[in-house]
Amino acid sequence: MSEKVKNVLRLLEELAPKEYAMSWDNVGLQVGDREDTVSRILVCLDVTEAVIDEAVKSNADFIVSHHPVIFKPIKSLLKDNPQGRMIHKAIKHDISIYCGHTNIDIAPGGLNDYIARRLGLKDTGILDVTYSEKLYKLVVFIPEAHQERVAEALASEGAGHIGNYSSCSFRTTGIGAFMPLDGSNPYIGTKGKLEKVQEVRLETIVSEKKLKAAINKMIAVHPYEEVAYDIYPLTLEGNSIGIGRVGNIEKSMSLSALIDSVKSELKLEKLKTVGELERVINRVCIVNGSGAEYIQAAVRNKCDCLITGDVKYHEAQMALELGLCIIDAGHFETENIFIELMANYLKDKINAEDLSIEVIESKINVNPFKVI
Ligand SMILES: [Zn+2]
Fold this sequence. Notes:
Udp-n-acetylmuramoylalanyl-d-glutamate--2,6- Diaminopimelate Ligase, Chain: A, domain 1, Alpha-Beta Plaits, 3 domains, eight-stranded mixed β-sheet, binds zinc ion
């Protein structure tokens, strides 16, 4: 059976919804059609013309890239510039392109977490919170005999989740009153007659993301033709997500030893650093790609060292003055592992759902820099 682009988008959204991305970013399907078929996915860091050629040669019809293909507004799409040529070629060969950038960095289990795990950080948390889930109180009125069925339906959609507890609700009993009118088909009562029923008021908490599905399921199992329910926005906040990870290293070590560990994990021969090599490091933060703007956040989080890429001269100077060590392992070097993370994620999901899609990893080196 042939699979469609929209099936792959669903798998990608499960890992990192588009809404997770930073406001300045541009993520999601950028070239192609949700209804196109997909048989082979090529995962890469950047889409260049050479990567499109690689996709064509290997019969890939879907590209998943980390960096957006379209970032700034495009004023023309001509073949005499690299971006225009590349997009033309993708369209000509019916190749769809999805870009998962800061949404993948931020997502739990995404690139920030992946690199933090690779570097052996423990007790990890978010370096800079970008979004906290909105919570709602959902109240529904149920005839007594049906309360468990409705409660179970709500819980199955994730309503009533508080910390390490699920299926949380509070119930009070009372009298529900209603009069069925012409055109109604009441489960209890008769038209034109005021009915009074012993009902349960069940209240539970639900996140914005799960609210719609919870309501749909609740209505589907509720016996009444018209389900009476209320939704109250809460000022409490739910789970937070954010960019960068902060954590402690397994055992205190010198900056020099930490550099060796970063080099070995990311397979690097050289990197840049700021700070005394003998400095003892306990707590670090990691922002893959370009993370110099998080120097202050690193200090606020009491980190000894920020591991990132793309640090400029004056930013390095500021870190030095603030007493923060920096390991600048490079933008490409801290993000190239996107390919294995994404390829492994997609392979696992595709296997679990028994989809007939193959996933391959790009072999094109897109790093414009050479260290000589
Ligand atoms: Zn990047």
